[in-house]
Amino acid sequence: MTGSRPWGHGLPSEESETLASLKVWDVIWPRDTLIYPPGWKIWVCVSVENLWFLRVNSQPINEPAVSVPVALHAFLGRDSWFGCGGDLIELPEIEVEDALRAQTHPERRGKVGVIDPDCRPEILVGIQASPRLAPFQIAQIISECG
User: What does pTM read for this prediction?
Assistant: First the structure.
């Protein structure tokens, strides 16, 4: 375990190691069972302390949405959108590990990338304007990501 980070306590595994080394702006590609139908979605860590994530989508869903160009993010298959407006993903550690473990493409297990620093200021502005995130969530995300 790194520092006082609470994640990655489970049995040693690639997934628990991923969570133990997780930093804000890191990108993972788990099986997302919170969408219908369940599928593979790109999640970005926006709080290590709370193990919170926001999604990257192929369309500008969850306005405000900020462009995440493939030219700056090799893990993407096309230009995409960071959903700054929510839905905040908050799952127990074991469920995040299970979602990562379900990934059938070995190259998509663990961290697949990081959000480019050039995109971050606009994303933070979008998060501050979110109509769905609570003020304490916005404050926490800005504190950790800003």
Answer: 0.89
